[in-house]
């Protein structure tokens, strides 16, 4: 594996390999000295074009526990504000020869673009509303620890699917691990065509009791201004996961940060069903496993998808149009 | 109202060429047979039996040997020549060189330049520049509204007097029905065609590609096809009510084809165009986030593509227009959502459509040639013909030539072509535009006598 750009690129074996490695690193986190020398002398560059405290510090902690050097580069207050293009920024920072770049941007596909411009291993820490693959891997890790196995689990992802990169990565990752995924939310926030990813679509929480796992998404307040839903009050009335709706045997997940009183009631955040802090904890060991896999693991090992896509160059257009009547 | 020459440019000496033993194809003349075509002093002097004509003095001979085809040169009513203001993308010379390389003998340039072509003095200076620098004749549409702001009409009557073929806010819709209605009313004074970019901004806002399974998977905000079709339906109603003459630009969806067909049945004076990319590509081609696949309107679904092909075949869609939209490399070398909309198209249009529609038997070659030349008549201009006495506008091509788009570099200043890297069959080798040799490929010299 050379980069982690999307869950789309990973098959089940690759996901399981990273999760198993994370389980080995979890043992390190329980030691008094939480550090291993695996990546000593290697450099990890955090390049963040969006505000992020949690994901960035999680990656930073992961890299430091592996003894790598970490450089943080935030786009605000930098050359980016002076109009430098993504490509020029990456070429400039690439001159420092980072071994890995952890990249978050508001643009779909940006990490894949960067992987073509720079020899470093690229980790997608969120590309627009497309994917957030390490979040999905830590979610799989957390669920696997709770459930033992994910095969056959019924997972409902609830909320603003349209604007959620977490939802896209989780739909793919949970399904690759054998779960059945249902997305639920207001019709204005369920993108047309999402069912093509293999998930079921619902617009109400009726029959929520069928879910083994309820994964609530963050409802961003700025969506109100764009009139995606009539009001937060109405949203909460129809889609909030609360004590009345959440069953005792169900697992509750959330990518954070939580809007208490909107997508989740305060009581369920603090309930034993919630694994939200376990997700945060999993973030560090899973990101350690990802960095280890990319920088110290068997490079180019099996389990990657998409790499074998046939070249388009020179393909006769006529051959592609063979589906004519 | 007096009108100046509608097209300007086409610099060069009058052509003196004998095309010997070529397949002469002109659907309007009912012609599809081997002929010699003699062009003297820029006019078609005569068509003779293959091998029957001898070159006159100072007339060069191109040996077709039955392998080359001669067609009336194409006309593109929708190109962006980016002049004034964006000459780093294209200018009057490079854009018309690209057109000539694609077999075109005339193009109409769009007014979404910087500054916007919305005043008579600017039109006058552009026409003067084109007369000096354009390789083939160019016509101009002026903006419907000042600065493309969609609010106040331009001085349409004066612009028409100074040579505007019509009006468009292309790149943007005329969102207000009230403003468009005024333009349609004013058309009774100034004439010309109102060419409409149809898009309801309240439906398309924020979108960067077609709304469907691919946009859902990629997390990119989608543009629903009804953003186009509802506006086509609205404006067809307005045009019918005011008896205006409208041209719907770059149709992309089945619903729009249906709306145009219905408007035509009702007798609305409407015409329409479709681009090679909407006829050959779909939103599946956007999956890799290649920014050359980002255009406006976006690439749609296979069912839309089939409806567009059917519309082109049955005449609901009158002509092919490339919407040639050059952008500099660094402007397109950015994340998909940041990239500007548009693909170049002049140099690949005929080859791509020949490869994708004619070779597999979907569209007869004669129909393609008819639709690639018909745009001129829609704007009141003469259509090129292969007939004695006509000013010569002829595209010469080798229908068997296989090439990879882009391998010969581009005449355009930009290279953002959605077909780049694809194998094509059929290649334009020479173009005579309005009586002058506008393009000659080196491969054509090889078959010279």
Reconstruct the topology from this structure.
The complex is a heterodimer of chains A (325) and B (449).
Chain A: H1 12-29, E1 43-48, H2 54-65, E2 69-74, H3 86-94, E3 100-105, H4 110-117, E4 121-127, H5 133-147, E5 154-158, H6 165-176, E6 180-184, E7 200-202, E8 213-216, H7 222-225, H8 232-239, E9 251-253, H9 266-269, H10 276-295, H11 317-320
Parallel strand pairs in A: 1-2, 1-3, 3-4, 5-6, 5-8, 6-7, 8-9
Helix pairs in contact in A: 1-5, 1-10, 2-10, 5-6, 5-10
Chain B: E1 8-9, E2 17-26, E3 31-40, E4 43-48, E5 60-63, E6 68-72, E7 74-79, H1 92-101, E8 104-109, H2 120-133, E9 137-142, H3 156-161, E10 166-168, H4 177-190, E11 193-196, H5 201-204, E12 209-210, H6 213-218, E13 222-223, H7 226-242, E14 245-248, H8 254-265, E15 269-274, H9 276-280, H10 302-314, E16 319-320, H11 329-332, H12 349-358, H13 365-373, H14 375-378, E17 394-404, E18 423-433, E19 436-440, H15 442-446
Parallel strand pairs in B: 2-5, 2-6, 7-8, 8-9, 9-10, 10-11, 11-14, 12-13, 14-15, 15-16
Antiparallel strand pairs in B: 1-9, 2-3, 3-4, 6-17, 17-18, 18-19
Helix pairs in contact in B: 4-7, 7-8, 8-10
Report on this model:
The complex is a heterodimer of chains A (325) and B (449). With 325 residues, chain A is α/β, with parallel strands linked by helices. The C terminus of chain A is likely disordered. The radius of gyration of chain A is 20 Å and the shape is globular. In chain A, helix 1 packs across helix 10 and helix 5 crosses helix 6. In chain A, the strands form 2 sheets. In chain A, strands 7-6-5-8-9 form a 5-stranded parallel β-sheet, covered by helices on one side. In chain A, strands 2-1-3-4 form a 4-stranded parallel β-sheet, sandwiched between helices. Helices cover 35% and strands 14% of the residues of chain A. Chain A has 11 helices and 9 strands. Chain B is 30% helix and 23% strand. In chain B, the strands form 3 sheets. In chain B, strands 1, 7, 8, 9, 10, 11, 14, 15 and 16 form a 9-stranded mixed β-sheet that branches. In chain B, strands 2, 3, 4, 5, 6, 17, 18 and 19 form an 8-stranded mixed β-sheet that branches. A two-stranded parallel ribbon of chain B has the order 12-13. Chain B starts with 7 loop residues before the first strand and ends with a helix. The relative contact order of chain B is 0.17.
């Amino acid at each position: 594996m050379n980069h982690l750009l999307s869950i789309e690129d990973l098959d089940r074996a690759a996901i399981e390999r990273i999760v198993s490695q994370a389980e080995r690193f979890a043992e390190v986190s329980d030691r008094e000295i939480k550090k291993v020398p695996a990546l000593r002398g290697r450099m990890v560059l955090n390049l963040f074009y969006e505000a992020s405290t949690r994901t960035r510090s999680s990656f930073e902690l992961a890299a430091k526990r592996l003894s790598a050097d970490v450089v943080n580069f935030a786009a605000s207050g930098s050359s980016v504000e002076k109009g430098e293009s993504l490509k020029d920024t990456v070429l400039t920072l690439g001159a420092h020869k980072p071994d890995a770049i952890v990249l978050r941007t508001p643009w779909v596909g940006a990490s894949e673009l960067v992987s073509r411009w720079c020899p470093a291993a690229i980790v997608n820490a969120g590309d627009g509303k497309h994917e957030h693959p390490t979040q999905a891997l830590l979610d799989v890790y957390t669920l696997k620890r709770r459930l033992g196995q994910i095969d056959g689990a019924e997972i409902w992802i609830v909320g603003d699917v349209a604007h959620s990169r977490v939802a896209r990565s989780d739909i793919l990752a949970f399904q690759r691990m054998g779960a059945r995924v249902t997305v639920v939310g207001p019709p204005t926030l369920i993108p047309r065509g999402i069912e093509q990813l293999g998930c079921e679509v619902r617009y109400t929480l009726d029959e929520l009791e069928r879910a083994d796992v309820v994964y609530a998404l963050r409802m961003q307040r700025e969506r109100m201004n764009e009139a995606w839903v009539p009001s937060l009050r109405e949203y909460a009335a129809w889609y909030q996961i609360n004590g009345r709706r959440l069953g005792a045997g169900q697992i509750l997940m959330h990518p954070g940060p939580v809007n208490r009183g909107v997508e989740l009631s305060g009581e369920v955040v603090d309930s034993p069903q919630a694994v939200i802090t376990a997700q945060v904890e999993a973030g560090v060991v899973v990101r350690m496993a990802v960095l280890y896999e990319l920088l110290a693991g068997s490079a180019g090992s099996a389990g990657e998808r998409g790499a074998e896509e046939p070249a388009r160059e020179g393909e006769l257009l006529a051959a592609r149009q063979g589906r004519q009547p | 109202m007096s009108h100046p020459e509608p097209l300007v440019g086409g610099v060069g000496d009058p052509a003196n060429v004998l095309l010997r033993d070529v397949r002469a194809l002109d659907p309007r003349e009912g012609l599809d047979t081997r002929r010699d075509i003699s062009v003297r002093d820029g006019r078609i002097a005569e068509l003779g039996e293959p091998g029957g004509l001898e070159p006159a003095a100072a007339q060069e001979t191109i040996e077709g040997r039955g392998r080359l085809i001669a067609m009336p040169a194409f006309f593109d009513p929708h190109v962006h020549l980016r002049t004034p203001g964006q000459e780093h993308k294209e200018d009057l010379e490079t854009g018309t060189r690209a057109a000539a390389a694609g077999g075109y003998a005339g193009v109409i340039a769009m007014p979404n330049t910087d500054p916007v072509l919305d005043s008579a003095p600017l039109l006058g200076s552009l026409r003067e520049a084109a007369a000096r620098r354009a390789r083939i004749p160019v016509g101009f549409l002026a903006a419907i509204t000042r600065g493309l702001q969609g609010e106040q009409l331009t001085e349409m009557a004066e612009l028409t007097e100074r040579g505007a073929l019509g009006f468009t806010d292309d790149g943007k819709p005329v969102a207000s029905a009230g403003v468009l209605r005024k333009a349609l009313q004013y058309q009774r004074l100034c004439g010309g065609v109102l060419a409409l970019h149809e898009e309801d901004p309240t439906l398309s806002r924020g979108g960067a590609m077609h709304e469907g399974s691919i946009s859902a998977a990629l997390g990119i905000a989608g543009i629903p096809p009804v953003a186009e079709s509802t506006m086509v339906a609205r404006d067809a109603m307005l045009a019918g009510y005011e008896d205006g003459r409208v041209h719907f630009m770059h149709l992309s969806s089945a619903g729009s084809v249906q709306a145009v067909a219905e408007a035509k049945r009702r007798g609305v004076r409407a015409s329409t165009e479709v681009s090679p990319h909407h006829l050959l590509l779909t939103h599946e081609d956007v999956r890799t986030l290649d920014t050359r696949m980002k255009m406006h309107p976006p690439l749609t679904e296979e069912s839309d593509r089939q409806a567009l092909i059917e519309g082109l075949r049955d005449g609901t869609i009158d002509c092919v227009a490339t919407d040639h939209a050059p952008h500099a490399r660094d402007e397109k070398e950015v994340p998909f959502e940041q990239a500007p909309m548009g693909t170049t198209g002049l140099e690949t249009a005929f080859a791509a459509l020949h490869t994708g529609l004619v070779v597999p038997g979907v569209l007869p070659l004669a129909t393609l040639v008819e639709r690639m030349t018909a745009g001129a008549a829609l704007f009141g201009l003469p259509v090129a013909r292969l007939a004695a006495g006509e000013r010569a506008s002829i595209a010469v091509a080798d229908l068997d030539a296989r090439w990879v788009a882009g391998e010969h570099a581009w005449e355009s200043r930009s290279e953002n072509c959605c077909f780049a890297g694809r194998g094509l069959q059929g290649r334009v080798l020479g173009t005579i535009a309005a009586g002058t040799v506008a393009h000659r490929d080196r491969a054509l010299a090889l078959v010279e006598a």
